[in-house]
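Researcher: We're teaching a course module on how sequence relates to structure. For the next exercise, students receive a sequence and then see the predicted structure as tokens, so they can try to spot secondary structure elements on their own. Here is the exercise chain.
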Amino acid sequence: MAPLQKPLPADPCFRSSAEKRWLIMEIFAQWLDNMDDMVSSMRLLSERFRNFCIALICLAASLLVLFAGILLALEHRPLASATATILLVTLMYRSATAPRQVVRQTT
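Model: And here is the predicted structure for the students to work with:
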């Protein structure tokens, strides 16, 4: 049984122009695939870096609010008490008016 394609000669000097064009296109396709992989990996790394920066910003904002609350409690106790009461009432209102999931019991 004969092979479907004739094998390429070992020496590139003896290749026909069609074989050389096919080889160049194959190399170019592999190069494009490698570039696509590189861009995709850089995008994944940048996404991890972005998530890390967002986490740092959230942590800094949380610490800032925490220290502002402590300073407020140390300097102006009535104002800190009023602020805490307003926050507590707001949280209670949200928990009371939030939509709830109804769990159906099967018999």
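Model: If you want an answer key for the exercise: The mean pLDDT is 85. The CA atoms of residues 58 and 64 lie 10 Å apart.
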